[in-house]
Amino acid sequence: MDIKNRIEEIKAKLNQYNYEYYVLDNPSVSDSDYDHLMNELIQLENEHPQYKTLDSPTQRVGGEVSSKFEKVEHERPMLSLGNVFNEKELRNFDERIKKSVKDFTYTAELKIDGLSVSIIYENGYYQRAATRGNSLIGEDITENVKTIKSVPLRIDFLDKLEVRGEIFLSKDKFNKLNQERLENGEELFKNPRNAAAGTIRQLDPKIVHKRALDAFIYFGFHNDFSNHYQTLLKLKDLGFKINDRTKFCNTIDDVIAYVNDIEKIKHDLPYEIDGIVIKVNELEHYDSIGYTSKFPKWAVAFKFPTVEKETVLNRIDFQV
Ligand code: NAD
């Protein structure tokens, strides 16, 4: 098959997989199969830019905006993350940053496998929650997110504040839900992410309440915030649920040690993760490091390989 046809073939497949994943909440292939295909497409398009089209799945953030909910325009785009799959690619990410800026540190966080949410607070009150959607326009899920008990409805912060985080279903809650569905003869959810995404799109908040979703917050936006790690500490003080394995890292070696530690214990966590997110802390560097149309260049997701061994390591505490 020639290159052009291979590109068209992958594009068609990825578009179909995106539809199944984001619209139907019912994927037919594994995330790692999807990621490999996406990587092949990125590589082919880089080698043959004449075949790169504006409608390529490499050019956009995956979600679709459903018509079930009101549409919400995000104040700042909700981007995706670039992926790396091994230590070498992670070191390349670090090298690229070093080419643009000096004096920076990282935060390494678990990449919870759920769906992202933007939540706006005004005058200290919970105002609105929205899905990522197509990154610019999401769906209004204010009522459903209100049922998540770890999301505060009132905070001691009077200015406008946007936080972002990941809505997820714990492994326990997921198993219980599927057990009930089995007993009722209903179709089972494939995994906790898929169950969380299906639940947040329920039109009846009572059903959402019963399913007991949870949310970790991993971003906060306010003019006073100048350092990502400090922002997380501040959000924690305000009562948001910040993952306690979040780790401040001085260098990429610290990040790699963290990735290796987490990889060994990931199956013992009470929720599913599909990788580690690494972010530069110093916000003043973000514009110099830059963005692509799909993701910031100052952050990256390290995706775990699909087959690994399981071992238990010591807990890494959120260093307050
Ligand atoms: P992504 O999953 O690679 O990463 C971006 C997302 O990570 C963010 O939007 C956020 O929701 C989440 N996240 C979790 N923890 C975070 C943290 N601490 N900080 C920041 N973000 C955090 O990208 P995506 O665009 O959400 O989804 C693409 C991925 O979805 C693909 O790489 C693939 O694995 C999967 N996918 C699978 C299929 C399939 O058919 N199996 C189809 C489409 C997409």
Describe the structure concisely:
The chain is an alpha+beta fold and 320 residues long.
Architecture overview:
The protein has 320 residues and is α+β, with helices and mostly antiparallel strands. It has two domains: 1-59, Orthogonal Bundle (Helix Hairpins); 60-303, DNA ligase/mRNA capping enzyme (D-amino Acid Aminotransferase, Chain A, domain 1, 2-Layer Sandwich), CATH 3.30.470. It is 36% helix and 19% strand. It has helices at 3-23, 31-47, 87-100, 142-146, 171-183, 192-200, 205-211, 228-237, 252-265, 286-289, and strands at 71-73, 83-84, 106-112, 115-122, 125-131, 137-139, 161-168, 214-221, 247-249, 273-280, 299-303. The strands form three sheets. It has a five-stranded mixed beta sheet. Helix 1 runs antiparallel to helix 2. It is globular. The protein binds nicotinamide-adenine-dinucleotide. Nicotinamide-adenine-dinucleotide binds at residues 17-18, 20-21, 27, 29-31, 34-35, 61-62, 80-81, 83, 109, 111-112, 116, 132, 166, 218, 277, 301. This is DNA ligase. Belongs to the NAD-dependent DNA ligase family. LigA subfamily. It comes from Hujiaoplasma nucleasis.
Radius of gyration: 20 Å
**Spans where pLDDT lies below 50 across 5 or more residues:** 308-320
N/C terminus separation: 55 Å
Spell out which ligands are present. nicotinamide-adenine-dinucleotide
